[in-house]
Structure prediction request, 560 residues.
Amino acid sequence: MENNERSARQVAFSMDVEEPSNQQFIDRSSRFFPMDIFKCCPLGVKALMPGTISRIQDATHLILVIGVIACSLLVISTAFSLFNAKCFKENLCLAEFLSIIFIVPCTIYCFRIIGQYDERLNIKQLQAKEQKDNLTKTYNSLLTDMDGLLSKSAESSAGLAERSFESKRRDFQRFLERVKSKYSTLYSGTKGDSDKLLKEFRRFCINWLKVFEECSIDPIQCPKRVITSEELNRCTSISEVADMCLDRLRVTEVRFISIQRDQDQQMLRRERKEFTRLTLALPSASNNMRSFPASFPTSTLRQQEMTKRRVSWIGMGGGQGWGISSTGGDYPTNIGCGCANLTVLSREHGLLLTGFCVGWIILVLQIISLLRTDQKQTFSVLVTITEVLIAQTCLFTMLLKFEEIDIVQKLEREVKALALQNQQVEKQREKMREFWTNAQQLTELWLYRTVPRLDLYKEVHCLLEDADDDLLFKLSNVNQQLEDLESKLCALQAWRCDGTLTIEDKKTFGKVVNELCHEQEIDGILLKLEDISSAGMRCLGPPPTSINGAAMESQFESFR
Prediction:
């Protein structure tokens, strides 16, 4: 268990966060950037323009803005052409349809990328990284807490009570199997005695089943009701009563504690795997967030940045082979094309690659249209070709710097995934806590009320199984004394750990009932049951003011 916790912590803390105050950002300022392209416009116009468009941070930002404008104009002109249906006369609007299908998604993605450009881009990266790290630590804390709940459940007495319930269930099944034929032959010649024996046997089974109802995680609101009294009352013979009880008990295993523990362990293993996947499967954005000493000159920083910048998703040379492969999940996906290798990093990366390729097809179609059109349409086609070229330049720039400009978006996706997973794990933890807290609250009820009475019933039906003389009389007295005891027991709520009964009173009752199990004769059990019912113990209802739990225990010493 300690190894699991240690490995989870190592996963969680392997993604160290650098404090924003210690992070030294690259100086991106130059002679031209940042640049306010709407500086000369009236204040009303500048107020309408988003800051990420009006204030250009670098050359890449400028190319993206121009490219988005060109893509937007291309989409508008394409939509206008489709609306007028002019293109159907030439090439069935193939270029227009390609523009709508592929350029529109790329334009939307470019807008999203531009939306992250401002002078606080590096701070946004660090904030997203910190959010991811905090969520990771919270996730790990939740899993550790859940692991602790399972460890405490293994040490709880609830498992011991469950095993005792299951043992008593099997004991009662054996009793039913042995006596159903034996009791059916008794008093076979006398109809009245036979009916009385059937009534008392049914009554004994009902009493045992009422005690067995407490073998539930919620015995107050949802008791384990195997058979109703109405169902048993419809049985016309001892054999029918026994068979009905046997059929129901065979399919009623008492394993709610062990089943819940196994389910929680499996769920915890799944969550740890998901935790590892979320924190390690995706490449860390911290690799793209480099820190430099403040003493480095700006020119040196730029030179180092340029030498480190490279396109990692495409490779040339060597035998790359042919085919498509993935290292886990959908992305990244490697596409081998003979001597070249292309890696699709994400869905957005694949969208940009597809749009870039489709852009060349659109450009070729527009050039063909230019060669075929008359002079009146030449200008509009040239404008369209220019828009396509600018859009291609924008897409090419984004592909070259995809790993750099996609940092914040990737971190935000990871943060959202971790936040959603945190919510799910939090709900599962609350369910676990509710179940095991409730089970812990019921341990005293099970150990000092339910288990001792089931032990008593086991000894009673073992003695009744061997009884040949006066069976009807003994069975009738047993039912009467057991029902008297049941009628005087305090409510189930009082037996919970947070109930009104003290632990000393509960232990006293359990100890006294367990003493009855050492009796060798049914008459001795009946005598002491009568004494217990009339003794006025705290657990048997409002006690006399002059009697306390310790005095009651000493009083029962005289019966032993």
Summary: The beta strands are 35-36, 55-56, 314-326, 333-344. The first strand starts at residue 35 and ends at 36.
